[in-house]
Design brief:
12 strands, alpha+beta, 12 helices, extended, 415 residues, 21% strand, four-stranded antiparallel sheet
């Protein structure tokens, strides 16, 4: 053990006076007082360090009189003292009050005089106390959607669409017509300026975006506005759906889409020996996807049932941070696909933020619940998969699961 560690080990814990001034869910306001003698003692240490390291005019480093150091560096010393003493005092107060912060505490107010006790107030968001109720034997549903001939047919059509080729128009036409595939640049405008994306992303722009001018795919007003434009032209179009929005569109190219036939050559293009094998493979993939969707749905139902049985406050800052992460992640994902994450009105923006906040709160609440169950069941001492995954597997094994087979599109149409 080094000399520094030995001194730290011998240093007695800081003694402070503390009390909880208010408590609202997970938010606790703590008032702390550090005795004047302790403040003076720490202050002398701060001045001693400054004396040893400071450079004052007319003196070599470490040789300036302490009185001169105090008069010259009073503000610097006060900041250094508070930077070191407040965290130490707050830590002692939290231990005395048995509070476990979920995030870094926030200093609300501090009153400091060199010859007086240091008094400050801190806002602390604490970890919630989760009082576990019944969590075994949860009644949950597992919804399965079997692969049918119709779903296989649709999947093959989707595959053909994905393998379609885009090429220039054979007749060299440069004026857009209904049903065309068009490459465009676009930007949404408000008061003549680009509309900012939610989550702090770049303005709502799309570059080299391929769009299909079909009313089922796009707002009718956008389709009508682009039809008749020439390649290389720019036009501002008012979208009348929902809240009116102005979009500046530049047509860069008109393309023709060629969809390959469903035959043996298509199968070979995707690495399958024959069309028959491709059909079998597509069915298997649909069944695997259905099983994954059933797993996700079953897990979400389990989490919902678990949350509904446990009501407890959650640290608001954790919710805000998680909501920002979800919002920013969605914005990046859309940007990677050449899409803008925008809201046409402030009301729509509030709705989007509320939805992300609800998702964030659900995730934070779930994390605390699973952690509490893990500790109670001793799952936190096991090795292997992640802790949350182990708890969810444990809960699933002890759940009462009802299997529900979803009707196919054909069955729905026949009913």
């Amino acid at each position: 053990m080094t000399e520094t560690k030995e001194r730290a080990a011998r240093t007695p814990p800081l003694r402070v006076k503390s009390k909880i001034a208010s408590r609202d869910g997970c938010v606790v306001t703590v008032e702390v007082e550090v005795p004047a003698g302790t403040v003076q003692e720490h202050g002398e240490r701060v001045f001693a360090r400054l004396q040893a390291t400071s450079r004052l005019p007319g003196f070599r480093p470490g040789k300036a009189p302490l009185s001169l150091v105090k008069s010259s560096l009073m503000d610097h010393a006060q900041k250094a003292l508070l930077d070191s003493l407040v965290p130490e005092a707050l830590s002692a107060a939290l231990e005395a009050e048995r509070l476990r912060p979920a995030v870094a505490p926030e200093l609300v107010d501090a009153k400091f005089e060199w010859d007086q006790p240091l008094r400050f107030t801190a806002r602390v968001e604490i970890r919630p106390e989760v009082n576990l109720k019944s969590y075994k034997g949860l009644k949950i549903e597992r919804r399965v959607r079997p692969a049918t001939d119709e779903s296989v047919r649709q999947a093959l059509e989707d595959l053909r669409e994905r393998l379609a080729r885009l090429s220039d128009l054979p007749d060299g036409r440069v004026v857009v017509e209904p049903g065309d595939y068009v490459v465009v640049d676009s930007v949404e405008l408000r008061d003549g300026k680009p509309v900012p994306r939610l989550g702090g992303q770049a303005p709502g722009r799309a570059r080299n975006a391929l769009i299909h001018l079909a009313p089922k795919d796009l707002p009718a007003s956008l389709v009508e506005g682009i039809v008749g434009m020439a390649v290389g032209s720019t036009k501002e179009i008012v979208l009348v759906e929902d809240a009116p929005t102005l979009v500046r569109v530049t047509v860069k190219a008109i393309k023709e889409k060629r969809v390959p036939p469903l035959d043996e050559s298509l199968a070979k293009e995707v690495g399958v020996a024959s069309l028959a094998e491709l059909i079998v493979k597509v069915r298997q993939e649909l069944e695997a996807r259905s099983a994954e969707e059933a797993d996700r749905g079953q897990r979400e139902h389990l989490i919902t049932e678990l949350i509904n049985r446990h009501d407890f406050p959650v640290p608001p800052t954790l919710i805000q941070e998680r909501a920002r992460e979800l919002l920013a992640g969605t914005g990046r994902a859309l940007a990677n696909r050449g899409m803008a994450f925008t809201a046409r009105t402030e009301e729509e923006a509030d709705t989007i933020r509320t939805r992300f906040r609800q998702s964030a709160e659900r995730q934070v609440r779930t994390a605390y619940l699973l952690d509490a169950i893990a500790r109670k069941e001793g799952l936190d001492r096991e090795e292997g998969a992640g802790l949350e995954e182990r708890v969810l597997v444990f809960l699933t094994e002890h759940a009462k699961i009802s299997l529900i087979v979803e009707p196919s599109a054909e069955q729905k149409g026949a009913s």
